[in-house]
Each structure stands twice: as C-alpha cells, then as structure tokens.
Task: structure prediction
Amino acid sequence: MKNNNLYKYILSITDNTLILGQRLGELCGHGPSLETDIACTNISLDMLGQARNYYQYAAKVKGGNTTEDDIAFLRKEHEYLNVLLVEQPNTDFGYIMARQFLFDVYHLLFLQELQKSKDQTLSAISNKAIKEVSYHYRFSSDWIKRLGDGTKESHQRTQNAVDDLWTYTDELFHQTETDKAMINDGIGVDTLKFKSEYYERANKVLEEATLEIPESRYFQKGGKQGMHTEHLGHLLSDLQYMQRAYPNMKW
Amino acid sequence: MSELKNISSLDSLPLGEMSDRTEWVIDKNLIPILNQVLDPEIPVLTILDMGVVRSAIIKDDEVIVKITPTYSGCPAMDVIGEDIIIAFKNEGYNAKVELVLSPAWTTDWITEKGRRSLEGYGIAPPLDAIADKEVLLGGKKLVKCTNCGSTNTKLVSQFGSTACKALFKCSDCQEPFDYFKCL
Result:
C-alpha cells in the first residue's frame, strides 16, 4: 500500500477512541447512578463518532472495497494499535474515571496538536473532536477530585486505580517508526513535545484530589505494536460478535 | 438507497474548501424544501434553524446539500440525510447529501428562531461561552427554567438525554429540564 504509514497512523489514533468507546459503552445500564451511566455512554458515543470519521478516512487511504466497518470489526487482536491504557477493564467507578482522566488529559493535548497537521482530513476531524473532548476532560477531572477528596473508601479506591494505571501512561508518548515518519512529514503529532505538560496537568488534578502521585518508574508498553494485555481479546469477542457469527450481516 | 451512502461516504470528508465562507451558499429556491426537514430528536427545530446545512445548490439537475454534524457521534445525521433526500424527491428533485466536518459546527449557528423554538419545546437554549462555563463548572444560576422562567436552577448532570444537552433542575418549580450546551 502506497500510504501504509498514514494508514497505520490513523489506526493508532482511532483504535484508542474505538476501544475506550467500547469500554464505556459496556456501562450502558450498569453505571453507578443514572446520571453517570448516561454521561459515560454519551462520552462513548462521542468517541465512537470520532472513530467513524477516522475509520472512513482510513478506508479511503487503504482504497479498494475496504469499508470503515471492515477496519473496525474484522481485524485480529494484534492488528489493533491502541495503547494498553484504554483496553483496561471496567472494575469500579474510581478505576473507570482514573482510566478516563489519564486518557482525556492526553487526548486533549494530542488533538490540539493534530489540528495543526498538514493532513486536512485529520485536522478537520480533530477540530471537531476537541470540542467534545474538553467536556470529557471536565467530567473525568471533576470526578477524580470528588472521589479522591471524598470518603476514605472512594479515596483509597481511586488511589489504587491511579497507581495501577500509571504504568500505562508512558506508552502514550512512545513513538513507533510510523509515528516518526508521520512527524517528519508534518502529518503526525510529536507527542514528546507535550509529555511534561501532560504530567504537570495530571499531577495538578491529582494533588487537588488529595491523591498521591505515583512514584513508580516501571512502565508497560506494546499496544502500539499490536502486543496487548489479555483484556483486549475479551473486549473484541464482544465487539466483533455480530460480524464473526453472521459474516457480512448489515444492520 | 444507494444515494444514502453519500451521507457517510468518504468522498464527502473534508474539505478544506469549506473554511471559505463563500462556499456556504443556500439557494433561495431550496429554502422552503429544507424547512420541511426537522431534527428527528428535537422535532420543533428545522435543520436550517439548527445551522447544520452548510450549503444547498442546484448543479446539473441535481441538488447538492452539505450538512455538518452537531457532534461527531450524532445519530441524527443519517436520518437527517435520508429525510433531505425524501423531501427533495417529493418536490421532484434528485438530491445528494454530503457530510462535512470543517469548520466544526457551533451552537452559535442556531438561529434566533431556533433558540425560541428550543425554549418553547422545554430545552433551555445555549448561553454564551463564558456564561456556559460558569453554569457547568462554577454552579452559577444563569439558566432559565423552561417551565416557570426562574433562574434559580441547578445542574444535575453535565451529560443529558443526548450528547448536546446537560440535565438541569429548577429549584423553584422542581421541574427537571434540558439545557443545550455550548459547543
């Protein structure tokens, strides 16, 4: 494929929004309260909408008869290029909000830069998405503060979640060969430019939430190369069920 | 149904040229037909009131309508595209609908008539961006209850029944209502 790097780059962006959108969608009817349930599924809808825009573009770049659905539903686990953070399972609400918050801080900074991309389509999609993501960030950062500075129980659970998920934050800034090629072409975002800002912003909210900033120097990565945690396969078996059970079925 | 594919089709995505405002032309003769198409989720609002129609022109016997989504995941867009094609078909036109993303839709594009329709329907129209932030983050009482008109209202949830709305409650008449968020 002529534009293999661009194709892979688009997937590495949009697989994040698809997988996290799917995780949040799992909460439909299972949120801790009606309002949070609706909020999480609203955020999920935004992310899936963004994912569609990117996948449509990826299908166009790939050419042939490829459709957005083929890309979203018919790849194998190791062909998904999302970061490990977004595939982590829903446990308690503190964990769900910590995962969301650690991604939202990144997502906002990332989209800010993607708007400047030389690629007009990516710039247009990010221009639209950033408005939605600023609402997501408000929601998750508010909840981190409420839970962290809440009861003893909510504080402890949120602290455990942040400690666990911190391991996956460094991967957000890991640059693959594809990333480097795209940065060189003025299409991709140089994430290292805002790495320190990411941690500053995250730390500020955690401090306000009376949470400890994890000191761990151990980080996990691999998702961007298709090496995932055991959780992604289970998520995909749910996500892809219809197309696997009834190939080519149309909604 | 093949025409419908255009709504989410790839040819339609994006669209640097749309940042040029001269592209936003709506042919006057087409306005009465476009006015027949309503937002499926807020059926008092026409798509023109909503500001989602970016251009509508006749080219080689075909009507080309460009629409822009309110939110990326707005499920109403497919239905709106379908409704536009049907409305034009009923008037003897062959219409093609294209989706454009840039420039991104903003609540500022909702017309004055649209804002009044929203309020009449029980959805408080969006405030300006600064007031919106004060309401959603600072707990300020600026949103007017659509039932009794009091501004003694409070935010229940930043996310409401659809992506574009937040949930509010009036502390005077106790009525819950939606607020259209600034975007």
